[in-house]
Design a protein that fits this description.
The protein has 347 residues and is α/β, with parallel strands linked by helices. It has two domains: 237 residues, 3-Layer(aba) Sandwich (Rossmann fold); 97 residues, CobW-like, C-terminal domain (Hypothetical Protein Yjia, Chain: A,domain 2), CATH 3.30.1220.10. The N and C termini lie far apart (47 Å).
Amino acid sequence: MARVPVTVITGFLGAGKTTLVRHLLEHPDGRRLALVVNEFGEVGIDRELLLGCGLAGCREEDLVELANGCICCTVADDFLPTMRRLLDRATPPDHILVETSGLALPKPLVKAFAWPEVRTRATVDGVVAVIDAEATARGLFAPDPAAVERARAADPALDHDSPLEELFAEQIACADLVVLNKTDRVDAAGLERAEAAIAPHLRPGVRVARARFGRLDPAILLGVAAAAEEDLESRPSHTDRAAEHDHDEFTSLVLEAGEIADPTALVEALRALARELPIYRVKGFVAVAGRPMRLVVQAVGDRVEVYFDRPWRAGEERRSRLVVIGSAGLAADPCRTRLGIPFSGVD
């Protein structure tokens, strides 16, 4: 029996993984796709973004959320049971997509496919690393230089490679394809700088594909046939030298509110918030007073994007929820105060 191919989609916070996944769901090319989403935070924002797309390929039963922490740290408890459930279906999917959190190291996840209970039934078709072209062109792996410097300064023992830079390098080093996304945000010189930053971490023969809004031909992304679980030695990782890793430099909190009167004011407040506090990412949904549609909010550093994705459903509570991901020690109270909006929330 043929093994079900699995594509692991990794990349740093805000690089555009969910946008790329949505594009694949829009263009399945006849495949029955299933998606496993690994959230970082308490609210299933990425899963909701995909379920809100209105596509036939976005069936709720085919989108599985793993919200108990970084997927590479919870392989045995969460990921493997999820894979078994998908593979045990009467009609298994033709292809499985795994969208990791921005904090996940891909190699421990790839190693899981060598486990006997999965090895004969699924294979890693390819590891795709999605990279933010604009941030990388600026010499960063994350788009907020102030937050990066705060994290660097907090560790007096840090050498020239910070933990986040190591993560950036490992995601590329494990990849079978690197997607340099958001190329519309940089000029030709910026593209050259971004590709030069990626090049030292690439394994031999791995291509870099340029993309805007995660739009690439599925034939480039799927059907790579890398069998990555059988090629672990060529994929360097610091986890080869350490039994475990942690993400103590990050924290995640949830802010909630009712309807928001002025979404423009919220966008400006989020931009100011990212400049003042060590925040990497904000994502969520907002109920706008007088508007029947749900407003999606996604922010990376002080870059904030908003759009309406779908009408609020009958009986659905019109409530605003934002997940804020930042450096360790980030607290809800300063975020609420600086937003100037009556958000409640927990650390």
